[in-house]
Design brief:
This protein is mostly helical and about 180 residues long. Helices cover about 65% and strands about 5% of the residues. A two-stranded antiparallel ribbon has the order 1-2.
Length: about 180
């Protein structure tokens, strides 16, 4: 789960299955007790139908915590004049050492935390460009890129097209943040 709508969707699924949750937050659902196998399978199916997955292994859980922290970090850098360093922010939000998180995330997701953050930023750039409210310079400043050129190079590397071609053709679909 990576957004408030995801939380609402999971809360709805919990009610549909007759499993009132004590607590639902990004990537976490807390129940009163252990589920019988048939209820667990029903919950797994309903979550899967809506694009969620049930996770029990620690590495996947930690990787999902990092993903949620990175999405929050993206908002943080956008809204802060002096944002925290990535490693500090992620460690503070997950309560784990950054080196440990980095290894777990890379092993589990097949990409580094930094690469995932770049992908998130490029998806945010696409979103901001679609609003046609900000110039590329303003977007670069908003997302704390050192220069428009650096943003443009990163955009091309991730999407395969230049920003101007993207704007002209606008055929590159945006990706859901939880699908990156």
């Amino acid at each position: 789960m990576v957004c408030p709508r995801c939380i609402e969707a999971v809360e709805g699924i919990m009610k549909e299955t007759g499993l009132p949750a004590n607590y639902v937050d990004l990537g976490v659902v807390e129940l009163d007790g252990k589920l019988p196998p048939e209820k667990l399978e029903e919950l797994r199916e309903k979550l899967d139908q809506r694009g969620f997955e049930l996770i029990f292994d620690r590495e996947t859980e930690i990787s999902n915590l990092v993903q949620s922290a990175l999405i929050e970090y993206l908002l943080h850098i956008e809204n802060s004049d002096n944002p925290q360093r990535l490693s500090e922010f992620v460690s503070n939000h997950t309560f784990f050492n950054y080196s440990y998180l980095s290894k777990i995330f890379s092993d589990n997701k097949g990409k580094t935390i930094e690469t995932y953050l770049i992908e998130l930023k490029i998806e945010r750039v696409k979103e901001l460009l679609s609003f046609k409210k900000w110039t590329l310079s303003e977007i670069a400043w908003k997302l704390k890129y050192s220069s428009v050129q650096y943003l443009s190079n990163q955009f091309k590397k991730v999407t395969g097209v230049t920003v101007s071609k993207y704007l002209k053709e606008n055929k590159i679909p945006r990706k859901s943040l939880d699908r990156l």
